[in-house]
Design a protein that fits this description.
The structure is a homotrimer. By secondary structure, the first copy, chain A, is α/β, with parallel strands linked by helices. Helices cover 45% and strands 21% of the residues of chain A. Chain A has one domain: P-loop containing nucleotide triphosphate hydrolases (Rossmann fold), CATH 3.40.50.300. Chain A has a seven-stranded mixed sheet with strand order 3-2-4-5-1-6-7, with helices on both faces. Chains in contact: A-B, A-C, B-C. Chains A, B, C: Catalyzes ATP-dependent phosphorylation of adenosylcobinamide and addition of GMP to adenosylcobinamide phosphate.
Chain lengths: 165, 165, 165
């Protein structure tokens, strides 16, 4: 079973995804695959907030780049938090788009239960700079891939979720 | 009863919220709490359009900053138009984020019927400038607070609403 | 019957709209009204991807500006791909907003079956530059007009659609 929580910045998608996987995986401690790579202080502060929330509830794995490899080691339900940051890291490390999407497709074919968190970033005017446009495109393609392979998809806003699939 | 209409710029959320509160409060004239603070001509023009639409239908109160104080005086259903602008004004007046969210929480605990209008601003890439990022974060936290306390939440696009809660 | 598919960049709205019209118009080849005007290589590359997908399935008409005139000639179901680009072209050619919206309203009163694709661009902070703000406003007004006149409206994200109307 694969479930996607997609939404905007501070839409509550991470909290909703965490609550969901904890409810599902009542007995076992689920894995928490954190994809954040720390670039600056602002990001560090954000990460700390997330970390405090998940202490004791999850078995945390930190892996900003090699998502498939890290997930192959998980022996139980896993929360991927978040796909957007992983895409961002891949672009930063100059991985070609086709390779990124191929890795994501392989991830989605793993048999373990998975809850994925992803930012919807395309509901605005086209960005001024080429890198942002590239990211928006890749992000949307990744979202479509997840939308196709996931059994359930929730669109999040205001801390609430709407079922799309 | 508290109801939130959340949506994008020109999504029709204000019209939908106005129509909704007028339908609910059939006998009484509801209050219209306008939070706009006029910064420039473009904003003045926008406000005028809103004003023309609400004449005779609402008892208008203009209060850009002291939301709780203004709402405590209302003796009937009130439309808060809009929370985003109030957040913006609070930031402009350098009110700390925690204080803003605390005031919003107090607002949501008032007993009067309330319809709140709010912009969803997080469905895009992360903004270039720090002030915009700060606003997006605050806006999302406020939206989550409203999503939690409101009895009904509608997501708006294309002049239509989808029920989230 | 008029149907609107609204969503973000790379939300899958075009694919969903194409699949929908092809399913509806099972016997006849539907028209494909392409509104793209080629401004640069990046856009040319995007258009080519769309063209490859629709070969043999549609009778393509390319018309970046005179939408009403082009649609009046269609004798069967037509996919308008997309309204956002047409709005953009109209602004580029300095057509006043009122005239654009009037033409769109006339389009929506044509009797032929129509599937319209449109970008939701307002779910972000207000843009820095005036042209972008003007576009976001016009786009939202156009979306509201379509939301009002269409029989069905779908909001798209992650390659999936949610029915709004």
């Amino acid at each position: 079973m694969k479930t996607l929580f997609i939404g905007g910045i501070k839409s509550g998608k991470s909290r909703l995804a965490e609550a969901y996987i904890l409810e599902q995986a009542s007995a076992d401690k689920p894995y928490y695959l954190a994809t954040n790579e720390v670039f600056d202080d602002e990001m560090q502060a954000r990460i700390r907030v997330h970390q405090q929330r998940r202490e004791d509830l999850f078995a945390t794995i930190e892996e900003p780049v090699k998502l498939l490899e890290a997930l192959q080691k998980c022996r139980g339900p896993v929360l991927v938090e978040c796909v957007s940051m992983w895409l961002n890291n891949q672009l930063y490390h100059q991985i070609p788009e086709a390779d990124i999407l191929q890795e994501l497709e392989a991830v989605l074919q793993l048999t373990c239960d998975m809850v994925l968190v992803h930012n919807e970033v395309g509901l605005s005017v086209i960005a001024d700079n080429r890198l942002a446009r590239q990211f928006v495109d890749l992000s949307g393609k990744a979202a479509q891939l997840m939308g196709q392979h996931c059994d359930q998809v929730f669109f999040c806003s205001a801390g609430l979720k709407m079922k799309m699939k």
